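Researcher: I'm preparing a figure for a lab meeting and need a structural model of a single chain. I don't have an experimental structure, so a prediction will have to do for now. The sequence is pasted below. Please return the structure as tokens so I can convert it later.
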Amino acid sequence: MNIACWLARSAKSLPDNAALVLGTRQVLSYREFAGGAAARANALHSQLGCRPGDRIAVIASNCPAYLEALYAIWWAGCVAAPINAKLHPREALLILIDAGASVCFVSPEWAEGLANLAGELPATLRIIVLGSGEFDAMKMATPLAVVAREPDNLAWLFYTSGTTGKPKGAMLTHRNLMAMTFNYFIDVDSIDSGDCILHAAPVSHGSGLYNFAHVLRGACQVFPESGGFDPAEIFVLLKTHTGMSMFAAPTMVKRLTEYAVLHNADTRNLKTIIYGGGPMYVADLKRALHVFGNKFVQIYGQGESPMTITALSRFHHADSQHPSHEERLASVGIAHSGMQIRICDEAGNEVAAGQAGEICVKGDTVMLGYWNNVEATAQSLRNGWLWTGDVGSVDEDGFLTLLDRSKDLIISGGSNIYPREIEEVLLQHPAVAEASVVGQADAEWGETVVAFVVLHAHAKVDSAELDRYCLERVARFKRPKEYRFIDDLPKNNYGKVLKTELRKLL
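Model: Understood. Here is the structure written out token by token.
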């Protein structure tokens, strides 16, 4: 079944319900939302030559037109490839080429960014600006019936950076997305047709994946006019919208809590905050619970098993009389209803409760594999199990605690940053002989990026120059916040850099 059938279903049963809202202004009802998707799907076929299975990218900041584009893609039987709008244009270019995208929907600012790379873009790529006359004209095409797809056909190509620095496209099927949505209803939250979700986190990732549950229930999707996360704006919107839920990184939860305390904000219309994407300090969580009440659910997932590995429910957040309550708040909860979890050693043997090992998961949300990457697929998917690359332990009661988000991965503000990407950029600078990047604990962001740099003999360069160099080549959020110049990198007998020693220096 095509995931777009859920939009068609809600458009029939709840046609006048608000579907997409910008700030406090309704943009489209469900009838209009589905009608636009059906027409644009036909335009993709008849005007742009797209066929079922073709990859169509979206690069934009959060806005109602983002979901309009996504559902036109799915309605046409094509595969959506949302790209993080915080990336550098050159990083986005690599993904467009890897996905073999035939069309790319972009926000106006991204049209300019890609125009600067015109000579490097695939000649066959068609760029359409969201909100433009061309985008609006697509809605004039004759509506098309939802194109039939099989459960294991691709629906979403979810790009996540790999440890080699090259982006990898996790192949998510219609079955994966449906299983994720059903797990949401069982283990995360219930949704009523009068509820809404606020997209303050990127639609290209976690927040966007939660659109399906709300479409299925005919609930409203609210986009801040700022297109991003602004605590003041969110609390203004809470005065208008009831039953509001949102996905937030732990840093966002902390900022919302601070704002609510400072301004004595009204939180009555806030229904649920689903948080994840990085470590949540227990002290910060306790404070948030005190300020907002029992409105929190934590999830742990990956692009490879979207938003669905474990969940820490409202009940477990509030179960303060349990002797292990503190430890449970520090965990990421128990396995989703449709998932199996085991902790394995390097040989693939399951370890005893309480022992550390790699987190392996199995279930209908697990991806088919990585797009055009047989080697990475074979490494991550073994005998039906996804090897997450994350280290953790499961206690006797089934609660999973993350011990490390893989050996080198840095999570800053809920965004994944792989050191190899930054190291490769630094090593291109003529003054840099060696470089190694690690994460440093940070109370606000979770971690910040620190680069250790060894210069060539007699070479001279300062932090400001290296910072400018990085900003020209990678997304701003990935660049080091500090550069430390040292004479030599610590290494073992095989010449491998000992990042544990570098972390000790911090």
